[in-house]
Design a protein that fits this description.
five-stranded mixed sheet, 438 residues, Arc Repressor Mutant, subunit A, Glutaredoxin, mainly alpha, 5 strands
Length: 438
């Protein structure tokens, strides 16, 4: 770190203006007795703004006295942070970012312009209008190269537009702050950037096609696993192949054919429906089943969207400072909760997909401790809880109530199995049923 010293020429005294003095006293009063030192940086910054953007020794001492701090401690703060200028600066104080992103995008050329027009760093121009300093990263790397002039950023600079910017400042003409090329924030350069245009990323749903692809991959993996397990079981159940010694003569096979021909129709139908005949592994979902699942998902998504629109319309009429409970009361009815978990043991609500540790805690605060409570929620209660937890529609979208119904009677869902197996890190906390405790 470079050595930072106070300027050789110092004013004899410093006093805050009446307005700044009132502002400082109001700020200091916010801190508890004995904690006024917490205001040191804001006071130093206000003193710098008042004194032509540099801190004289008298201002540092004044701040120390106002805060009851040792003057040396305040001097340490002022000399440590480069945001404080310890010597006079120009009316337009230019901070040039010279770290790698700006350097490779043209900062050295801007540095040459500053050296030619103003002179070396920290020198104030003859007319008092400019001085400059090369600094560390200013956090606008996407729009490099850039400079900070007083309190404003000027980005996407080139030799030409930077020279023009300095000319306008010198002449007192209005200048354009931010990007000098018309770019908004850190969007791609106009005419050169690309955006995500893969149609597969936008399937019209609220979560995008990535979720659909993820679920399809999971379904394929599960189907392959079931098929492999079925093939393994079939192989184990099949009778051992007879040896040559045990094989009957060819004519003896006729009775078996006859028996097959006279087999009852149900047996033939069962044989025709066997995995070997249909090519479908036991337990594998049919196209009709997949269609039903897809239809249920679409219906659930539609309900969630309608729910969210309804809630949004209701909440729009409330004051902006409405509490979560006021918002919930406007769209539904609060479910009746329990004072405590039955028997002192609560269900692990994190076994419901969509309920993490935080939401479980908030549900417990509402008196919701058990799966059967959630399974019994009415439409009004679902809306109330959704609005209270600040995610209307999500309860339907993630199907909390149906999951709770399964879990309430001792059943399992694919997600609860993963939780019980310890595969869901955010749901750690142990099984919800005593019989699951090992």
């Amino acid at each position: 770190m470079s050595v930072r010293r106070l300027a050789e020429q110092q004013p004899p005294s410093f006093e805050f203006s009446p307005d700044n003095r009132a502002w400082a006293e109001k700020l200091i009063a916010k801190y508890p007795k004995g904690r006024q030192a917490s205001a040191v940086i804001p006071l130093l910054w206000r003193a710098q703004e008042q004194h032509d953007y540099w801190l004289p020794k008298a201002a540092i001492e004044k701040v120390a006295d106002m805060l009851g701090m040792n003057r040396l401690r305040v001097l340490e703060v002022a000399t440590f942070y480069t945001m404080f200028n310890l010597s006079p600066v120009g009316r337009h104080f230019i901070q040039l970012c010279g770290t790698p992103p700006c350097h490779v995008k043209g900062a050295p050329a801007l540095r040459k312009i500053l050296e030619q027009r103003i002179g070396p760093q920290q020198k104030v121009s003859a007319d008092g209008k400019f001085s400059w300093l090369e600094v560390e990263c200013l956090g606008a790397c996407c729009n490099a190269p850039m400079v900070q002039i007083n309190n404003d950023y000027y980005e996407d600079l080139t030799d030409e537009n930077f020279a023009r910017l300095l000319d306008d400042l010198a002449a007192g003409r209005p200048v354009k702050k931010g990007s000098q090329t018309g770019r908004v924030s850190s969007e791609p350069t106009p005419g050169k950037g690309t955006t995500l245009t893969d149609a597969a990323l936008y399937d019209g749903s609220r979560v995008g096609a990535w979720k659909k692809r993820f679920e399809e991959e999971q379904a394929k993996a599960a189907e392959a696993a079931r098929a492999a397990e079925a093939a393994k079981a079939a192989a184990a159940a099949a009778p051992a192949a007879p040896t040559n010694a045990a094989k009957p003569d060819a004519p003896a096979a006729a009775p078996a054919v006859a028996a097959s021909a006279t087999a009852p129709a149900p047996a033939q139908a069962a044989a025709a429906a066997s995995p070997a005949a249909t090519g479908v592994a036991p337990g594998a979902p049919t196209h009709e089943a997949k269609d039903r699942v897809a239809g249920a998902d679409a219906e659930r998504e539609a309900k969630a969207a309608a729910e969210e629109a309804h809630v949004k319309e209701k909440l729009a009429a409330l004051p902006k400072d409405a509490t979560p409970e006021q918002k919930a009361n406007a769209v539904g009815a609060r479910p009746v909760g329990l004072a405590a978990a039955r028997g002192g043991v609560a269900d692990d609500l994190k076994r419901i997909k969509g309920i993490g540790k935080v939401n479980e805690g908030r549900l417990n605060e509402l008196g919701m401790f058990h799966f059967d409570q959630i399974a019994a929620w009415t439409r009004d209660e679902i809306r109330w809880v959704g609005a209270y937890l600040a995610f209307p529609g999500r309860i339907d979208r993630e199907n909390w109530v149906e999951q709770a119904r399964v879990l309430a009677v001792g059943g399992e869902t694919e997600f609860s199995k993963r939780v019980d197996a310890g595969e869901v890190a955010t749901s750690a906390g142990g099984p919800s049923r005593p019989d699951k405790v090992k």
